[in-house]
Structures are given as structure tokens and as C-alpha cells.
Design a protein that fits this description.
CATH topology: Arc Repressor Mutant, subunit A
Shape: globular
Radius of gyration: 16 Å
Mean pLDDT: 91
CATH architecture: Orthogonal Bundle
Helix content: 55-70%
Largest sheet: 3 strands, antiparallel
Distance between the termini: 28 Å
Number of strands: 3
Number of helices: 4
Low-confidence stretches: none
Strand content: 15-25%
Structural class: alpha+beta
CATH class: Mainly Alpha
Number of domains: 1
């Protein structure tokens, strides 16, 4: 596993919750949105176990919706517990990323 995918693995739950908080969405659509926003390493196979875990924790709820020309799609929407968790994770992320930015921008890094 390369370094980029390790970094992504640590924040993907938060990113999925943030997308679902924007609007109810289904798996393939989430992958597309993540990739369009710069997270090209994300695949359908990588998010379904995470969605299952988020649902078991009560952060999201899933509902099958009939689709035209295909099988029903499982749409996910955020639950109240998920909104609360997203707020906490967002606060933690901002604090962490600010510290990382200060370190990365704070010197010549041995050059």
C-alpha cells in the first residue's frame, strides 16, 4: 500500500459522511464525487465495507430505491448520530491539518 492510500484510509469515513450529509446518495455516485474532488484512489470496492460499518454504528441509514433501467439502488442518508460524529471529526481534522501545515510550511525541510 503506498503512502497516499494510507493517508486516504484514515480520512475516508469522514469524507463519506460529509458527502452523505450534502444529500442522500448511493455507492457508485459517492465514488464518482470523491474522484471528481481529487480522491482518485477511491473505488467502489473500498467504500462498501466502510458504508456498512458507518451504518452499523448508526451514523447513516440505507434505503433501497427503484431505478429506471436497472436494479434498485441503496441510497444512504446521514442520521443524527452521523451529523454529530461528522462535526467531531471535522473539528479534529482541522486541528490536525493545521498542525501539519505549520510543520510543513515551517522550514526548509533539510534543503
Amino acid at each position: 500500500m503506498d503512502h497516499s492510500s494510507q493517508l486516504l484510509k484514515g480520512v475516508l469515513d469522514m469524507c463519506l459522511l460529509a458527502l452523505i450529509a450534502e444529500e442522500p446518495t448511493y455507492g457508485y455516485e459517492m465514488v464518482d464525487k470523491l474522484q471528481r474532488r481529487g480522491l482518485e484512489l477511491v473505488s467502489e470496492g473500498s467504500i462498501y465495507p466502510l458504508l456498512s460499518r458507518l451504518q452499523k454504528k448508526g451514523y447513516i441509514e440505507g434505503q433501497f430505491v427503484e431505478s429506471t433501467g436497472g436494479p434498485p439502488r441503496k441510497y444512504y442518508r446521514i442520521a443524527a448520530a452521523g451529523r454529530h460524529q461528522l462535526d467531531e471529526w471535522t473539528h479534529e481534522w482541522r486541528r490536525l491539518s493545521q498542525g501539519v501545515e505549520e510543520i510543513l510550511g515551517g522550514g526548509d525541510h533539510g534543503r
